[in-house]
Amino acid sequence: MKFMSYAKDRARGLAVETDEGFRGLPVSDPRFPGNLKVLIAEDRLTEGAEILADGAPIDPDAVTVLPPIPDPEKILCIGLNYRDHAEEAGMALPEYPAMFTRFNSTLIGHGQGLLRPRESEQFDYEAELAIIIGKGGRHIDEDRALNHVAGYSIFNDASLRDYQMRSGQWTPGKNFDATGPFGPCFVAASALPPGCAGLRLQARLNGETVQDGNVDDMVFPPARIVSIASQIMTLKPGDVIITGTPAGVGMGRNPKLWMKAGDTVEIEIDGLGILRNPVADAPV
């Protein structure tokens, strides 16, 4: 099952992919089954998909595609989680996940402008797999952690590298407004290999492939990440965990390769689609 959150004429809605393309309903329709976060929390994805499939055709190019979950309670990010990325960054493989946070104000959807702030030119791309929590919990064993995952999506963990490195905490460089492309869709875990094993992820900048990795190269795979995160906090339905990026980021190149206004960045993951965003300068 593949779901797309959208807005049209200022009204939000939810669509599901069918054999005939996306079909869906606006929030105002009496048949609307609830937004994606509600369907996940109430374990009603299948029911919701059946209702949405009887809705009107939805053309992704004729609507504003929103982040699959625009308002997650928590957005956790895992750094240095690919061996080749840690190597290009000149850093040792972590023995424990490097964990930091993003906030809702950073999120944008597929096709929306990825804004380079006026404070820095060191604007970098990061292709990442996003985990969306289904069944919440605390102290989740690794061998059952994937039972707590509702599905997956794509994330571009765009980073302001100079701000990221100004302190031991990476939060400043990861939380400028409109720097977190997320989407375009949510894909149910049942439609993908367990833990997305074997899936290829790529980043392209202006059509040129700049990152090309595989989920199997993670230091901490999805099940372990979910388990470790649940030792610290109670995970809730709709929480998002962003799982790290492979080698090829702009910071690791010589010369450096920074995103700039007029660029287009695409993140593609097998089975999940393509997340595409134009880059623009943030308004002064």
Structure notes:
The chain has 284 residues and is mainly beta. The protein folds into two domains: 2-65, no CATH class; 75-281, Alpha-Beta Complex (Fumarylacetoacetate hydrolase, domain 2), CATH 3.90.850. The chain has five helices and 19 strands. The model has no long low-confidence stretch (mean pLDDT 96).
Summary tags:
284 residues, mainly beta, Fumarylacetoacetate hydrolase, domain 2, 2 domains, twelve-stranded mixed β-sheet, five-stranded mixed β-sheet, 5 helices, 19 strands, 35% strand, globular, metal-binding, hydrolase activity, FAH, Fumarylacetoacetase_C_sf
Q: Bin the strand percentage.
A: 25-35%
Q: State the helicity in percent bands.
A: 10-25%
In round numbers, the mean pLDDT is 96
The N- to C-terminal Cα distance equals 41 Å
Give the ordered list of helices and strands: EEEHHEEEHEEEEEEEHEEEHEEE
Model regions low in confidence, pLDDT < 50 over at least 5 residues: none
CATH topology of the largest domain: Fumarylacetoacetate hydrolase, domain 2
Shape: globular
List the helices and strands and how they pair.
Blueprint: E1 2-8, E2 11-18, E3 21-26, H1 36-41, H2 45-52, E4 56-57, E5 64-65, E6 75-79, H3 83-88, E7 98-102, E8 107-108, E9 114-116, E10 123-124, E11 127-133, E12 149-156, E13 159-160, H4 161-164, E14 180-188, E15 200-205, E16 208-214, H5 222-232, E17 240-242, E18 264-269, E19 273-281
Parallel strand pairs: 6-17, 8-14, 9-19
Antiparallel strand pairs: 1-2, 1-5, 1-14, 2-3, 3-4, 6-7, 10-13, 11-12, 11-17, 12-14, 15-16, 15-18, 18-19
